[in-house]
Amino acid sequence: MNTRDPFNLHKGSTAFTVLQHSATRAASSAASYTRQAGQQALEAGKQALDNAGIADGMSFAVPRNVPSFTDPQRRYEDNAWGSSGRSRFAENGHGHGNGGVAEKIGGIFGDKKVLPMYKDKPYNYGASMRRRRWFKMKRVIGPLLVLVFGLFYWVGWSPSGKSKGAKGSWVMFSETEENYDWDERREAVKDAFKLSWDAYEKHAWGYDEFHPVSKRGRYMATNGLGWIIVDALDTMMLMNLTKELAHAREWISTSLDYEKDQDVNTFETTIRMLGGFLSAHYLASTLPGFKPAEGAPEDDLWLEKASDLADRLLGAYESASGVPYASVNLKTRQGIPSHADGGASSTAEATSLQLEMKYLAFLTGEAHYWEKAEKVMEVVDNNGAKDGLVPIFIYADRGNFRSNEIRLGSRGDSYYEYLIKQYYQTSKQEPIYLDMWNEALTGVRKHLITYSKPSNFTVLAERPSGLDGHIHPKMDHLVCFMPGTIALGATGGLNVTEAKKLPSWGTQQEEEMELATQLMKTCWGMYKATATGLAPEIAHFNIYDPPQMMRHGVLSSPEALDIADDAEWRQDFVIKPADVHNLQRPETVESLFYMWRITGDSKYREWGWEMFEAFVKYTMVNNGSGFSSIGNVNEIPPPTRDNMESFWLAETLKYFYLLFGPNDILPLDQIVLNTEAHPFPRFEPDKKRLVTGWKRILRDAAGNLVREEEKEEVKVEAKSREVVVGLATEALIEAQESGK
Ligand code: DMJ
Predict the structure, then answer these.
(1) What is the pTM of this model?
(2) Which cysteine pairs are joined by S-S bonds (predicted)?
């Protein structure tokens, strides 16, 4: 393997060679006759391209197809994006592009100033400058790709590196392949990271956004917030990319300054930047090779930056209720209510700050970080959400929920994730969060799990009008964190064989593992259901009428999927035009990583590899200038969105790397990963006198809160019963004594 040019980008620099390299890699473990035939096919295809005289100019940088976001909810969410903020993004100085783009999209945001980030919904960018060239070439490239794939088909090679002959046209859910070289596959992930990073370093160094097709960067605040650099630190440490890390460190120590009159999103800044610094601190003091030598001073930079940033973010918590405002100004430290959603914060955002603040409190011994973050959990829980399922908005000033919409996708997701992770982060010293997680998961099983038809995929659906309203059979890709988190909850991160030996193991945990397994298949199905093998942002499902709920009986989807275009299982998935984009999100590979570590079933690694191949094949930018989100998972080649999310480096590639790597790196029973995949150690808070400062309000048998005044009534009733019983007893004794 040529590690200096992993994807053969510098020879010929064509999308075709990228495809060739990916194909070669994938096929490396297949039978040699298959490999040779594949190479011949590739050579034939390349020859054809050369003959056509277009190979060097060929590009995946097809015109951007800005999806028409017609779904009412999508419109609602995207409007929220451009809600408020003081500073517009600054231009990057690389030519003219983004000012012009800002003007082009000005109509979308109107005169409003914009927040830099709002729950990871990206801004739109102008179409690629290559548009016309692509259209000119399309008629030539299309038939050639058909020819190449036709040859692959003819020789029986499939993208997963398996010969069709052996298994027929089925993707086996239970298949295990032990012979692959996982070290090599892990190296391929590192190569993809390097490629992404090198392109960013070359074209957009220091910028908060990277647009790899137009090769530009963009600031979210004057001179940047370190959005991409800080988010990627720990991945570089895990991959041992010391040169890249040194460059990042140098930039952070000399150029990054948070003293800026800039509004930032409280949640995004916490999980990505604060989380990024904290995990860098953890890994730097833990990973061999990064640990300071005996007697040498620790590198304090990461912790200093973390504390400085956290102090600024604390201003967001200064609301009347203690629930943080959606945004905060880094300089004035003033919290700012959301400019959408009636000023309410998103519930997931307000309740996914605790792992970071608690770890910082433990590291520094400063309890106020802990207390501020923990107070939020108390206020949220005191609303008494039925069956642990919380509406997706909460007002910071009053601390009460807005509307009754329930989902585990956007704005709901990481509330649930942080319940169980807080329990494990603090070494089980806070059982209150286990209690809340158990209640919520029971609620999910009762109200949200339904089945698709005809193939009975497990669907974690939504209740847009509350628990008494209809079920909406839709899953955001974001929901796919759940299979892994459920498995983590059931086992504590131990391998399931070990977990089964624990006295706490029982039917509940068995059922949870089965739910995780079935949901994992659904998330995987979201990838297999598309032309590119990449999941859409959102999938809808055909469901039974009336809905077949889990509480009516557990159903299972097939163990194998027929890959034929007209296979029956495809009817279960409905992908709407507004949802066909793919932002290179991590949730499915995140869950695959947990499922692999916990069950040891290598099918999860196989699925991961197929996903990784699809990302390489369809999201890599021409000439190796990185990877980009795409506009349509059902179009080949897909239109690019010209944007590389920071979570591509921080999460997606990290999870792939860990999935293909040895199990003793970041053992899951010793760490927790925050919602941006930044690992923190588990710790014992009582060692720093940190304790849970609140108790849940009592619930009655129906799950309703028993308020203080009601408790009083209950007490009075109980007292009078006692008195009556007491008097009766006395009378009885008296009567017995007097012989009556
Ligand atoms: C990340 O920023 C985090 O995983 C967050 O919890 C959800 N959205 C993105 C990735 O999809």
Answers:
(1) 0.79
(2) 480-523
